[in-house]
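Hi R.,

Here's the chain you asked about this morning:
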Amino acid sequence: MRGHEVVVQSGAGEGSAIDDSSYSAQGARIAPDAESVFEEGELILKVKEPQPSEVGFLRPHHSLFTYLHLAANAELSQGLCDSGATCVAYETVEDANGRLPLLAPMSEIAGKIATQAGAFMLEKPLGGRGVLLGGVPGVAAATVMIIGGGVVGMNAAFIAIGMEADVFVYDTSIDRLRELDIALNGRCSTVHSSTLAIEEMLPRVDLVIGAVLVHGARAPRVVKREQLKLMKPAAVLVDVSIDQGGCFETSRPTTHSDPTYEVDGVIHYCVTNMPGAVPATSTYALTNATLPYVIALADHGVRTAAALDPGLRLGVNVAAGRVTNPAVAASLGMPLTPLEEVFGAPAGAA
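And here is the predicted structure, written out as tokens:
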């Protein structure tokens, strides 16, 4: 690729129906395991945050480019600092309009999965209330509340509307609610989000989808445990914000193999990395978004690439053993070192 040597871990693409020979055919070299990739590589590309064993492979000369979600993970943050590696997080890279271009494709997928999963978990054999999301003639549709009107919330609403549920989208931005009303053709109710508005709705809902995001920071808690008693027995909560710590007080991470648990009679679905359930779709969606940044990092290195692209600069969360992202530092109570102190001021800065 553009003269760069590419090393791929054997079996890395199996879940996405891409075998080793497909990578080899494009000029990549196959390494037997992750440790070998880290030993040979300088720019390390992943999807999920580094696992504990992988953190031990990182060295100061490495640049890591992946989802990190550090605001809810002090242990990983400290491990990355100790490694000395430069760590760039997909989820805090911004475009010229302040949007999150590397989070968007996974948010689109996660939003759609959230509604699908919620509909499934409402079925009686899965512990839910035993209601069909769209109802049938003569029987009312289920009521779906989506808290957060960003990319996740909009895509969750698209699917819920398509399944003929009665949909309510909550957000704190009136401008965003106006945009959603247009994008969704007025097919759902948009509501200004407040503690009172949420509490008044909870007794009516069958499915709540939490889709709250603060750039780089821990997700705020929008439903407290004491509010669960307001809900119907066996209603379902789906927390898409779980990668950033969760937006329900009773949320804790779960897996695709064991996705739910019950608290106070309410079913919780809090699977981390929801797009991992559809890797064949997720791989191509994410690669489409990340490849231009990968090329920039490979061509120029992190320091120069970050100077050339202010949005990419915002993606640098850890460098030279220090936390350089303000939201991450604030969420974890860790000292913040401005990136300028590590990299120097970007070109053209006063």
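One quick note: The longest strand covers residues 166-171.

Cheers,
M.
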